[in-house]
Amino acid sequence: MSTSERDGILFVYLNNAVTSEVTLFPVQKELTYFWQVEVSSGTVIPTVLDVSWNLEALVTVQQTEQNSTFFKITLLNNRTTIEDAAAMQLSFCGTFDNGDFTTITVSKKDELWSINMKRALLTLLQLKIPRIEEELSFIDEEAGIYGKCTVEYGVVDYGYKKVHKNVDHDSCKSMPIEESANCATNLCPSSYQVHTSFNHVYSFARSAFLQNKVTLY
Length: 217
Hints:
- By secondary structure, this protein is mostly beta strands.
- The protein has two helices and 14 strands.
- A hairpin with a 2-residue loop joins strand 10 and strand 11.
- The longest helix is centred in the middle third of the chain and has 14 residues, at 112-125.
- Residues 1-13 and 208-217 have low confidence and may be disordered.
- Residues 77-180 form the Vitellogenin domain.
- It comes from Rhodnius prolixus.
């Protein structure tokens, strides 16, 4: 069985507050991002089976002075009815520590599948802010839905910083999943085999068009 996932490009703004705390988003501002996800999985033996699932949504972000970040997802042009995906559109809150994702707070009405997707989104947004401000390339670890994984960073400065992240899923520790198969697993004769590959691109730039004063949720 193989699984792959592709995420759209996100543009994120790094905010240096008056205090020593560094936030991913500007305080007391509202930003909106376009989020696109494509997930596919399938088998080859004993029969060919391929299943794919797509999601397009707007993600509205509001940053508080207490370093709690509020998120709201608005689904766009999806085959699933809004009633079936109502939990996905419930607001939620994420907490980051200098760019590292630490906690998620959700509504009592939220559902497990929705919470897992929101947690995945927050782990995708996390960045090693102190290091990308000083280094052009480095390897570090991040905790996410796949456990604690090794992540390779590449940073390019165009007047704004463009960050490439590559997650090595073979390195993940305490991965909270169980694997099973109805046929023998055929492994490639190589230590470089990778079951799943992700490549994320982040660009940081101030945008007066996206930033407006708002009343927080």
